[in-house]
From TrEMBL:
Entry keyword Transmembrane: yes
The organism of origin for this protein: Flectobacillus rivi
Protein name: RDD family protein
Domain of life: Bacteria
Keywords: Membrane, Transmembrane, Transmembrane helix
Location in or out of the cell: Membrane
Length: 129
């Protein structure tokens, strides 16, 4: 069976859903911290870094982000699309995606598997499920 690769529109929708979800979680975390007195800055910073820097890589490696789940797309290994990428691949992929922003998607139209630059770097591919 030939894999079904998502369109750019679906990938952007997924990213927007994840961004909104992270903003909501950050708001809730801020509210939670305001309930407690004298939360050290190190704890606040660690929580926000873990949320922003860990949400997508961890969810991607162990299943799917909320955006991936709702748009029915998944990140998989290029060599075997039945397997999820590992945590190292996920942590390689994510900073490149964040650093390049929308430019990361420039390679999609030139690639038969619609792989973005961060997919090329991590050995991953997005598929529809």
């Amino acid at each position: 069976m030939k894999d079904n690769y998502p369109l750019l529109r679906e990938r952007v929708q997924s990213s927007i859903i994840d961004l909104v979800f992270i903003i909501i979680l950050m708001y809730l975390l801020t509210h939670l911290f305001s309930i407690f007195k004298n939360v050290p800055d190190e704890i606040r910073l660690s929580a926000f870094l873990l949320l922003f820097g860990g949400y997508e890589p961890i969810c991607t490696a162990f299943g799917a982000t909320l955006g991936h789940y709702l748009t029915r797309i998944r990140v998989r290994k290029l060599a075997d699309t039945s397997q999820r990428i590992n945590i190292l691949q996920s942590f390689i992929r994510y900073p490149i995606k964040v650093a390049l922003g929308m430019y990361a998607y420039l390679s999609i139209s030139r690639n038969p598997q619609r792989r973005a630059i961060h997919d090329l770097a991590a050995g991953s591919v997005m598929i529809r499920v």
